[in-house]
Amino acid sequence: MSFLRKSVKLLNAAAGRQQNLKAIVGSTLRHQRTYSSEPPNDYANFPGAKAPFVSKLKLNMPEDYAPIPIYRVMDRDGFIADETQDPQLGREVVEKMFRDMLLLNTMDKILYESQRQGRISFYMTNFGEEASHIGSAAALEMRDLIYGQYREAGVLVWRGFRIDQFIDQCYGNVDDLGRGKQMPVHYGSRELNFVTISSPLSTQMPQAVGAAYAMKMRPNNDACVVCYFGEGAASEGDAHAAFNFAATLNCPVILFCRNNGFAISTPSHEQYRGDGIAGRGPMGYGIATIRVDGTDVFAVYNAMKEAREYVLRENKPVVFEALAYRVGHHSTSDDSTAYRSTEEIEVWNSVEHPISKLKRYMVHKGWFDEAEETAYIKEVRKKVLKQIAVSEKKLKPNWKEMFEGVYAEMPEHLVEQQRELQEHIEAHKDSYPLKDFKQ
Question: According to its UniProt record, which reaction does this protein catalyse (predicted)?
C-alpha cells in the first residue's frame, strides 16, 4: 500500500474515533440537561436498536406506514408501462418463456385428470403462477441452487427437466429419480441443482439459508441459493428462523415467496396481518426486499436479476414477494369453489392470467402465431399422454430401496427391519403384487 493510501486510511480511522468520542461526550452532556426546555432530538445508540428519541409517546400503528409498492413492467393488455424497464429480451427467449408456460399448463391439466381417474395418487397444478416460475428461472444461472416447495414445476421446465421425468416421478416407477420414495409432484434433480421437495411446510427454508452460508464460505463464490415458499408457509416457525438466520449471518439467499392469496383453504387476510410477506423484510428482519407482480413474467425476470446481483455483490439476503392468484385448487385434495367464487377465479384465469399477458405482448411485437400455439399445445398433449401410457406400465422400484439411500452404511436397526420384511414377504407371497415391482 502506498504512503498516501496508508495516511488516508489512518486519518479516516482517527476521524471515526473522534466522531464516536463526540457522540459519547455529546450524549453525556445532553443527559445532563434534564430540566432543559430544548426538545430531545438526539439519536439513541442502544445495542438493541438505533433510532431517534422523541419526547411524546405515540403508538405506532400499521396504517401509519405505506405498503411496499408492487413492481410491474407489463399491464394486463401486454403493454410496457415504462420503456426503460423493458428487459429487451430477444424473440427466441420470449418464445421459450411462452412455450414453457404452455407446456406446464398443458401437462398440469392432463396430470390433474390422471389423478381424478385414479391413475396417480395426488397432484398439484401451477395455474396462474407460471410467470413467477419462468421469469425467476430465466434470470438465474444453472449453478444457482434451488430449494422448492411444491408449486415450482416451471423452474424445472425452464432448466430442462423432461416430460418423462415429471411423469415417472408422479407414477413413482423404476425410472423416478426419487426411486418412488416421494409423493407425486415432489421433484428433485441433482443434475439441475434442484433439491428434492419435501412435504412439510417450510423445512426447506432454514436448509436453504444454511446452504447459502456454506456457499458464502467458498472462495470466489459465484452462485446463490433461491428458496421458494408460499405465504402460508411463511407462518411456520421455520420461516421466521430462516429469515433471522439469513439476516444475521448475511447469507446470499433469495427468499422467494409465492403469495398466491390462499394457503389451501385459508385466504391471506386470515393467514397474517400487516403488509404481506414483503413487510417482514426491511423492518421485521432488516432484509432488503422486492415486491413484484407475479403475473408479469418481465417484472419477475428484472427483479430476480437485480436480487441475484445484490446477494452476490453484498453477501446478504433478499426477501422477494411475487403476488399472484392460485387459479387452480390447492391440490387434488381441495375444492376451492367452497371458499371463493367462480366469477373471481374466472377474472384471474383470463384477463389477469400470466400466459394471456405474455401472449398480448407477443401480439404487439408481431411474434405471435395462433396456428403455431395450437399446434404446439397438441404436440405437448400427445407427448404427455404417450408418456403416461409408458410410465404407468413401468415396474415399481424394488421394495428393498425403501431402506437404502439414506445412510452410507445401513445401521443395524434398519438391517434388522429389512430382514424381517423379507421374511414376511417370502411367507406371504400370494398377498402382494410382487410382479409389479422390480426384483
Answer: N(6)-[(R)-lipoyl]-L-lysyl-[protein] + 3-methyl-2-oxobutanoate + H(+) = N(6)-[(R)-S(8)-2-methylpropanoyldihydrolipoyl]-L-lysyl-[protein] + CO2
